[in-house]
């Protein structure tokens, strides 16, 4: 290997000699040989001509001796191999030397006729034949040519040897020294330098090599110092550091790692890291890099077994290093003890899935239980039921008795419901007063129905809290898997829909889900969207219906009625809008919008002659009775220059049933502000008479159901309706309240109510509810209602 450069050099020189010099020598020999051969033949021609002339006289004279003498003279030449003289006379012939047939083919044969010029003329007396030697290339040369050729060969050999020696001195020797220095550096790590100085390329190469060795030595020393510092930092860092190879074998660990795990260094080096984690976590540990994808870092949480047998949960964060082949050569990892954090996380997870008040599962926990229940049901091809419970009067209890009483009610409700459940049934608290139960088993539909009946019966009994009996009923919805739903969220939704269907159907009972309920749910969702869009796009309008005096038919006021005017569907049913708005909580925003527009309409009407004393009656939902209501109303009245005395606040029994301090405070402030209070739909509630005594009421509105009963077909119904209306009018007048009858649609209704002493009335007989534009046109063209002619 060390002489390969010299071998290649010799091979190159030899190749050059063979390719270039040898052909030139052969060409030289060939050309020189041809020249010499031509010279020999030319000399032989001359000798042949001279011999032919010399032999003419002896052959004419038959002088055999002279003939032989001349033949021998011709054969004496070194280039003449054979001489043959043949006379025309028989027996006259000479040949020197005796011819060798084997070499005859190597000679060039020259012959001449021997002519004797006799007095009688030209006479042919015989022929002479010379065999001239041709031979090989070298055989044609003489001594002089051979000497010159030998000198040429010697010169070439000298040049060749000189090149070899020069190459060895100028190239091979420094290369050998460089190779030796490199080998010493490889074997012993020392940076050997080469002692060689020259002004050629090899000298520059040696100089660069020595400079490189010096630089590498400096860098090596720096790396040693850096490695020493890194090792020191690695071992002194207060973190459990370790390194693993491609096969997940431990190649290094920090002192802190050893102190925290209790192992000795020699006990862990070259062992698989998976040997120290629990078998259940082996798969997740081996798949950690796959889970990390193309990222250069990965992390995994596994249980690690310490030297004393204890297990700690550790978070391993690993960074992979890449080699030249772009594959992982090694990984540096840090191991963090997160045992306490994991325990806290488990506690938090339990808390996150548990209701703190009742100890039941919350919505998140119940959904997880539903998922697990569905998987088990699928495995055994079984069914399960979801029972959704909503308390009917819990909000009223919370608002009137406080949250402490409400919490106690919830706890007692849970206790009563659990008494009707089996140990394997799962109960949860979904929301404030909403509960859900997971039931599985054979004939689950009948089982869930029976449980629903038992729950309703159990909650129908009053609950005693702090000496007070409270009535709490419930609405129950039931949905079945896989009959009604395909997954957990859908099952919970279907049971919720069934519960709402029961609540809208009269509360206090159970309802099995039916697909027809989806249409109602979709309708509620569609209307809820219309409400949101209507609030955003200003689809809501305040229609006005006149309130007239029963005696003279003159307009004394207007009731503001909410209408949602859809750009495509037109006016939507107000009762449906109000019911869904109260469910979704948007009724307050709708009420504010209608109040603002209605007061603006009253201001526009007030600019007409004779309408300055008319009032505006506005219906208020229980959700609107907030402490800020008087301030909002005052701002609107001030903005539109309307006196508070011209505003009538219409409230229903639902508002009065709240009987909360906030409602009392708001009504008191409105009364002090100058507004009047009207009790709407009077006579339909079971405790309306008590409300007249407990709340500051100014106007009593007779429900339209009594008005319609005045003209009923049954005589007894007509009689009782007149007695009830007369009684309401009597009580109201004695307490100083005005009475207003709703739903007057015929002249007969008007005349009967007028005879019964009702003060004011409203209905389609006088006018239907109108938008402000139509109302202004009607008021401008008529100073009185159309029905005054009756």
Shape: elongated
* Total number of strands: 25
Class per helix and strand makeup: alpha/beta
- Mean pLDDT, nearest integer? 84
Reported for the largest beta sheet, the result is:
8 strands, mixed, barrel
- N-to-C CA distance: 134 Å
Radius of gyration: 64 Å
Features of the shown structure:
disordered C terminus, 790 residues, alpha/beta, 25 helices, transmembrane helix
Summarize the structure.
Pfam families: EAL, GGDEF, PAS_9. The chain has 25 helices and 25 strands. With 790 residues, it is of the alpha/beta class.
Topology:
Elements: H1 4-61, H2 64-75, E1 80-87, E2 93-96, E3 107-118, E4 121-133, H3 143-188, H4 201-236, E5 240-245, E6 250-253, H5 255-261, H6 265-268, H7 282-286, H8 288-292, E7 297-305, E8 311-322, E9 328-337, H9 339-352, H10 363-379, E10 384-391, H11 394-401, H12 403-419, E11 426-429, E12 434-440, H13 444-460, E13 463-465, E14 468-470, E15 474-481, H14 488-504, E16 509-512, H15 516-537, E17 540-549, E18 555-566, E19 570-571, H16 574-584, H17 587-606, E20 615-619, H18 629-640, E21 647-651, H19 653-658, H20 661-673, E22 676-682, H21 688-694, E23 699-702, H22 704-709, H23 715-734, E24 738-741, H24 747-755, E25 760-761, H25 772-781
Parallel strand pairs: 15-16, 18-20, 20-21, 21-22, 22-23, 23-24, 24-25
Antiparallel strand pairs: 1-2, 1-4, 3-4, 5-6, 5-9, 7-8, 8-9, 10-12, 10-15, 11-12, 13-14, 17-18, 17-25, 18-19
Helix pairs in contact: 1-2, 1-3, 3-4, 11-12, 14-15, 15-16, 17-18
């Amino acid at each position: 290997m060390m002489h390969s450069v010299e071998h290649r050099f010799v091979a190159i020189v030899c190749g050059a000699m063979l390719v270039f010099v040898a052909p030139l020598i052969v060409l030289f020999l060939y050309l020189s040989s041809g020249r010499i051969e031509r010279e020999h033949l030319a000399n032989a021609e001359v000798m042949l001509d001279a011999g032919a002339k010399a032999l003419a006289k002896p052959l004419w004279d038959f002088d055999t001796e002279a003939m032989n003498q001349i033949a021998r003279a011709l054969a004496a030449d070194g280039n003449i191999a054979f001489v043959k003289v043949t006379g025309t006379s028989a027996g006259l012939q000479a040949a020197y030397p005796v011819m060798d047939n084997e070499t005859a083919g190597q000679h060039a044969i020259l012959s001449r006729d021997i002519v004797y010029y006799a007095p009688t003329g030209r006479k042919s007396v015989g022929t002479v034949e010379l065999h001239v030697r041709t031979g090989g290339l070298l055989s044609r040369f003489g001594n002089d040519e051979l000497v010159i050729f030998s000198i040429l060969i010697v010169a070439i050999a000298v040049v060749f040897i000189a090149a070899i020696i020069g190459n060895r001195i100028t190239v091979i020797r420094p290369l050998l020294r460089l190779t030796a220095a490199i080998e010493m550096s490889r074997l012993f790590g020392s940076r050997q330098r080469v002692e060689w100085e020259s002004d050629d390329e090899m000298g520059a190469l040696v100089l660069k090599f020595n400079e490189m060795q010096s630089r590498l030595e400096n860098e090596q020393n720096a790396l040693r110092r850096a490695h020493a510092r890194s090792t020191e930092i690695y071992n002194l860092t207060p973190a459990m550091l370790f390194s693993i190879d491609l096969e997940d074998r431990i190649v290094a660990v920090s002192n802190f790692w050893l102190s925290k795990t209790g192992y000795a260094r020699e006990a862990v080096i070259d062992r698989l890291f998976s040997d120290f984690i629990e078998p259940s976590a082996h798969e997740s540990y081996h798949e950690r890099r796959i889970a990390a994808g193309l990222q250069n870092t990965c992390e995994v949480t596994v249980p690690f077994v310490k030297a004393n047998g204890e297990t700690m949960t550790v978070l391993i964060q690993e960074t992979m290093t890449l080699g030249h082949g772009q594959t992982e050569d090694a990984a540096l990892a840090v191991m963090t003890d997160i045992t306490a954090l994991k325990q806290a996380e488990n506690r938090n997870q339990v808390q996150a899935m548990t209701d703190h008040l009742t100890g039941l599962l919350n919505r998140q926990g119940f959904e997880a239980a539903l998922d697990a229940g569905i998987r088990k049901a699928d495995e055994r091809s079984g069914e399960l039921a979801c029972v959704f419970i909503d308390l009917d009067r819990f909000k009223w209890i919370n608002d009137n008795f406080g949250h402490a009483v409400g919490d106690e009610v919830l706890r007692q409700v849970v206790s009563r419901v659990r008494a009707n459940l089996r140990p394997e049934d799962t109960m949860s608290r979904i929301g404030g007063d909403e509960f859900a139960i997971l039931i599985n088993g054979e004939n689950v539909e009948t089982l869930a129905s029976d449980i629903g009946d038992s729950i309703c019966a159990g909650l129908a009994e009053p609950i005693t809290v702090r000496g007070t009996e409270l009535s709490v009923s419930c609405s129950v919805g039931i949905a079945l898997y896989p009959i009604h739903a395909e997954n957990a969220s859908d099952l919970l939704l279907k049971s919720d829909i069934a519960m709402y269907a029961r609540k809208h159907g009269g509360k206090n009972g159970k309802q099995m889900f039916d697909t027809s309920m989806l249409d109602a749910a979709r309708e509620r969702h569609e209307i809820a969207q219309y409400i949101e869009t209507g609030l955003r796009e200003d689809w809501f309008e305040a229609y006005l219906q006149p309130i007239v005096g029963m005696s003279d038919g003159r307009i004394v006021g207007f009731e503001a009625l909410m209408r949602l005017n859809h750009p495509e569907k037109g006016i939507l049913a107000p009762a449906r809008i109000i019911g869904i708005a109260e469910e979704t909580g948007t009724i307050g925003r709708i009420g504010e919008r209608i109040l603002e527009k209605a007061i603006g309409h009253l201001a526009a009407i007030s600019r007409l002659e004779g309408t300055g004393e008319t009032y505006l009656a506005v219906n208020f939902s229980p959700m609107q009775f907030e402490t800020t209501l008087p301030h909002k109303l005052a701002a609107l009245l001030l903005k539109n220059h309307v006196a508070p005395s011209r505003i009538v606040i219409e409230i229903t029994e639902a508002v009065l049933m709240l009987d909360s301090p906030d409602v009392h405070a708001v009504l008191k402030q409105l009364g002090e502000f100058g507004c009047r209070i009207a009790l709407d739909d009077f006579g339909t509630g079971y405790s309306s008479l008590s409300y007249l005594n407990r709340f500051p009421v100014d106007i009593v509105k007779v429900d339209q159901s009594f008005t319609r009963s005045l003209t009923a077909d049954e005589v007894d119904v007509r009689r009782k309706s007149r007695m009830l209306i007369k009684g309401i009018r009597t009580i109201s007048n004695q307490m100083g309240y005005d009475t207003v009858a709703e739903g007057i649609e015929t002249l007969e209704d008007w005349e009967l109510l007028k005879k019964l002493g009702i003060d004011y009335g409203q209905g389609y007989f006088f006018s239907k509810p109108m938008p402000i534009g139509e109302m202004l046109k009607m008021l401008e063209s008529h100073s009185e209602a159309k029905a005054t002619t009756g």
